[in-house]
Design brief:
Chain lengths: 308, 396, 288
């Protein structure tokens, strides 16, 4: 039943460019990028029990590395992407070692602090990063010689990456490693007593989440063709975190819905309602009061009840 | 009136003007003013320019570059706008520049970033206001030659706009025999200016290259630490803007600033505009309201020249660039890089009718973005930044 | 010499301001284990109340306004706690969502009500003349601000150590299950403490106003500072919040003056060290 729905959804997604204008195709690309970012954060928040307010670090660093290598040093997109992801993952490995010395609010604060340090460096080191002017005039890659400049082409590229990301993360959470992760989230002491190494499990998840954050960062810089320190800011991380929680942190579909919600409200609803910030806040309040575990779990509960 | 109507027979829809303004977030004050001025402009003309109906669609960029880009896409792809006024921040403008160029949308920017009309110009962009440093030049000359300041300190927000403005000020001030002995850059979001005020060295005057309300917040602390008795204060075009002046008190009196506009400008168009704006909104128009209104006037001039044809984008752009329009700031024309050449004003804060205003005390006519420098040489140098031109007279 | 003395005094006054901001946050987190991410917005709301009230009503003085703003913000906080937060006892992620959501609502409301301009809070008339000593000039109000922080700290100390309410709060911080078991009405206590924390933030906003001014984005600028102070000083410790505020005041003031290149990261580096090597902060009793 679930698989049928998934295949149907995939088919709709593939056919989207044939039934909408450029604006909606672009919007869909943005939603997919936000979804991957939210999913990667959810590995930490939902499955790992580690609430991070610095996930934008990975998006931003991957984007900046790619931007610098391609625009300033004339690298091709393929090698640039490899180095970006490698660099981001390495950074996630280091950050993980530092951040995992704390839990709860301390962990939140370290991730916040680390991302703020990166933001400060991006802002201040204007010789390297161009500071708050950002890096403009970037290009999109041409995999197999196909241009991604058109909205539909870029959308399908993003869709392929998004589906791959989703599948890879789904495998991760439903594997035996995923089960140990959930165990460590819920009962770290018992897991340790059973002989597992909670720190190692958390750290591996941290690195994996950083990797996929980097992937979303690459897509982000390809889409926007521009990168600015604001992408590394706490606001960027907070929006992703809010999306994950609002959508439902314990599920795979939740973060995607939540990420889409925040994106749509910020970019789309603001055309219709000036007080979109307030609306976003009210929606969060509403979600937490009515569906405390998030939209997706809340809705599926409602559907299950309605089924009977 | 028959000729214009013949042209519209084929173009039956309205002219759609998009506006990219930050209406929420820290830049909200400016964005809100831009929106109000444009709305007032259109209402005055009954939403009709050159005989054709006009629609304005205002998009909230929230002051974030990625959102600015999304909104630009929305305006172009969903609302199908013919031209865009804005955005107001440099990083917003840089984020949308290549997109708007690619889509060939005539853009009348308000953002001051130098390179948008210098080393990375676009044929689809003009800026009817000024570059970051353009207004600093005459003030620097005035400080050195008229006020005879010899040693000055500059303080500005630590981002490209502040860097560029201080660089321009430093260049002309030092070319005229002055010395900049200290350059302070404070983070854009500095809640407490106390530690910065305490760093200011003793000099003849201090130049405020701040944006938003930071100038007034710094000034308050400056007064409280007793420094206003020791040093004069001068400011750039956004240091003591009308929008900030309305919340200030006597500490602002007598301070000189420079800009391409003042609500007190004596020309007939501005007398009407400023009075009407004040009547509708209870405060004087400043940088952003003025910037939006002037851009709209320039656009109107171009639309009249093309007889309301917006579909021929190249013709519209040529008309905008070729314009010699009378606006509330004076006459505006553009150089071939899209930067405005117009009068610049040194203003002094005075009290008039019980409120603080920027009274104009000196006009520098027809100032270009290159001041008196040779254009070719100017463009060979790197763009102004925190470290360029190098500050050789800093004291430890 | 002048530099060190003036910046030293600046550090003290910034520290005082930070204590007024962070003490409420520390109280709330200590008792309720709730990271109240609305705290910056409560503070900003206080500043706006102060700025607007003092602008529109000539006869008011700053202290009365601070009290009034404190009560108003406490009331808003109390409503928020009762209607929304009580339902989120065991849902820390939900708490994050809701407190941030509330912060969005408050900050957007301030934008709608009072516009995008920065509104100054006037310094009380009798404190406007700067203090002059040994050839130095320093704003009098900032010295008074330090006094306010100390007074608040003393008042909170008495509340926590010498009153019955304080004893109940301390019991709740140490072990809320046992506290309930011995009949302490913990959920009413939670509401009281939340009101108190929000109220101090609101009053602190007014008192900080002459230094900061009310502007959109003040909440986002102040919240990280509150978090840093509490992390450094230690959760659940009033002494920690007090000492932490002044340490952060010193680091920030001297750091930005001596190492301007590090201005953006000067506060986060020490915080990372503290969390990495002493996660409970300087004086914390419980792990973060």
């Amino acid at each position: 039943m679930k698989w049928l729905a998934a295949i149907l959804l995939a088919a709709l997604l593939v056919l989207l460019p044939f039934c909408s204008g450029d604006f909606y195709i672009n919007l869909a690309s943005q939603i997919l990028i936000a979804a991957i970012f939210a999913l990667s954060l959810n590995l930490l928040v939902g499955y790992g029990g580690m609430t991070s307010l610095g996930h934008a670090s990975y998006l931003g660093v991957a984007a900046y590395i790619s931007a610098l290598l391609t625009s300033r040093y004339g690298w091709g997109h393929g090698p640039a992407a490899v180095i970006s992801l490698a660099g981001t993952t390495a950074m996630a490995a280091c950050f993980g070692v530092i951040a995992l010395r704390a839990t709860g609010l301390g962990f939140l604060m370290i991730t916040l602090a680390l991302s703020q340090v990166l933001w400060g460096l991006a802002y201040r080191m204007s010789d390297v990063t161009n500071g708050d002017n950002g890096i403009a005039g970037l290009t999109r890659p041409m995999p197999f010689g196909i241009s991604l400049n058109g909205p539909a082409a870029f959308y399908w590229f993003t869709l392929i990456v998004a589906i791959t990301a989703f599948v890879m993360m789904a495998i991760f959470v439903s594997s035996s490693f995923g089960s140990t992760l959930k165990g460590v989230r819920d009962q770290p002491r018992r897991m340790a007593a059973l002989g597992f190494n909670p720190w190692m499990i958390r750290w591996i998840t941290f690195v994996y989440a950083g990797f996929w954050g980097g992937v979303s960062g690459l897509l982000y810089v390809y889409y926007n063709k521009y990168i600015h320190p604001a992408s590394l800011s706490t606001t960027s991380s907070a929006e992703a975190l809010l999306g994950v929680i609002a959508g439902g942190s314990g599920t795979l579909g939740g973060p995607m819905v939540g990420g889409a919600l925040v994106l749509l409200l910020k970019n789309y609803a603001s055309a219709y309602i000036e007080r979109w910030n307030m609306l976003l806040g009210l929606i969060f309040l509403f979600i937490v009061l009515v569906m405390p575990t998030g939209i997706v779990p809340g809705l599926s509960k409602l559907l299950r009840r309605g089924w009977r | 009136m028959a000729a214009p109507n013949l042209v519209f027979a084929e173009n039956s829809g309205p002219i759609r003007i998009g506006m990219l303004a930050a209406k929420t977030g820290p830049l909200a004050s400016g964005g809100i003013d831009m929106d109000l001025a444009l709305t007032m402009f259109l209402k005055e003309r009954d939403y009709t320019i050159a005989g054709r109906k006009v629609e304005a669609i205002v998009a909230d960029t929230t002051g974030a570059p990625a959102t600015a880009r999304s909104k630009a896409q929305e305006l172009v792809e969903k609302n199908d706008v013919h031209c865009i006024i804005g955005p107001l921040a440099a990083f917003e403008a840089l984020a949308v520049a290549d997109y708007l160029s690619e889509k060939q949308i005539p853009t009348l920017g308000v953002a001051a970033a130098e390179d948008m009309t210098q080393r990375h110009p676009s044929p689809w962009f003009v800026r009817a206001t000024s570059t970051s440093a353009q207004c600093a030049y005459p003030l620097a000359e005035y400080c050195a030659r008229e006020l005879k300041y010899r040693r000055m300190v500059t303080i500005a927000d630590d981002f490209a706009y502040g860097h560029e403005m201080c660089a321009g000020f430093q260049r002309v001030f030092e070319d005229n025999g002055g010395k900049i002995i200290q350059k302070i850059f404070s983070p854009l979001a500095t809640p407490d200016y106390g530690s910065y005020v305490a760093q200011v060295k003793n000099a003849d005057a201090i130049f405020l290259g701040t944006a938003g309300a930071n100038g007034s917040r710094f000034l308050r602390q400056f007064v409280e630490y007793g420094l206003k008795d020791k040093m004069a204060v001068v400011g750039g075009m956004t240091a003591l803007d009308e929008s900030v002046l309305r919340n200030m008190g006597d500490e602002a009196l007598g301070i000189l600033t420079t800009s391409w506009y003042s609500a007190e400008l004596d020309n007939p168009l501005n007398k009407v505009f400023a009075a009407e704006f004040r009547k509708q909104f209870n405060y004087d128009p400043g940088y952003y309201a003025g910037g939006s209104y002037v851009s709209a006037e320039v656009l109107e001039g171009a639309l009249k020249a093309t007889r309301g044809n917006v579909e021929d984008k190249k013709a519209l752009m040529a008309a905008i660039r070729g314009g010699n329009v009378e606006t509330v700031r004076g006459i505006v024309k553009f150089d071939d890089l899209g930067s405005a050449i117009g009068d610049l004003y040194i203003r002094k804060v005075t009290r008039k009718d019980g409120r603080l205003v920027n009274s104009v005390i000196r006009t520098y006519p027809d100032v270009s973005q290159f001041w008196t420098y040779d254009r070719v040489e100017f463009l060979k140098n790197p763009v102004y930044s925190r470290d360029y031109p190098p500050a050789k007279n800093l004291e430890q | 010499m002048q530099f060190w003395i003036i910046q030293g005094l600046n550090s003290l006054s910034l520290g005082g301001l930070l204590f007024l901001l962070a003490s409420g946050f520390s109280l709330i987190f200590g008792l309720m284990r709730l990271a109240n991410l609305t705290h910056g917005a409560f503070f900003m709301l206080g500043t706006y109340f102060g700025a607007v009230a003092l602008r529109n009503f000539d006869g008011l003085n700053l202290w009365v306004t601070a009290l009034g703003a404190g009560i108003a913000v406490a009331a808003i906080g109390g409503l928020f706690e009762r209607l929304v937060l009580t339902r989120l006892k065991s849902n820390p992620l939900g708490q994050v969502l809701v407190t941030l959501g509330m912060a969005f609502i408050i900050s957007d409301a301030c934008l709608v009500l009072w516009g995008g301009d920065s509104i100054p809070v006037p310094t009380p008339q009798n404190l406007r003349a700067p203090t002059r000593f040994l050839g130095f000039v320093f704003p009098t109000y900032r010295l008074v601000l330090v006094g306010c922080a100390v007074a608040t700290a003393v008042a909170l100390y008495f509340l926590l150590e010498r009153t019955r309410l304080g004893a109940m709060i301390r019991a709740g911080v140490d072990d809320s299950q046992m506290a309930r078991a011995v009949g302490i009405p913990v959920s009413n206590l939670f509401t009281t403490v939340f009101c108190l924390g929000a109220g101090i933030a609101g009053a602190g906003g007014v008192l900080g106003g002459p230094v900061l001014s009310a502007y959109p984005g003040l909440d986002a600028d102040m919240l990280p500072l509150a978090l840093i102070v509490v992390i450094l000083g230690g959760i659940g410790s009033l002494l920690g919040a007090f000492v932490g505020s002044f340490i952060i005041g010193f680091i920030y003031t001297f750091g930005t003056a001596l190492f301007p290149e590090l201005a953006y990261i000067i506060l986060f580096l020490p915080m990372i060290f503290v969390i990495a090597f002493r996660p409970q902060g300087l004086f914390g009793r419980v792990g973060a």
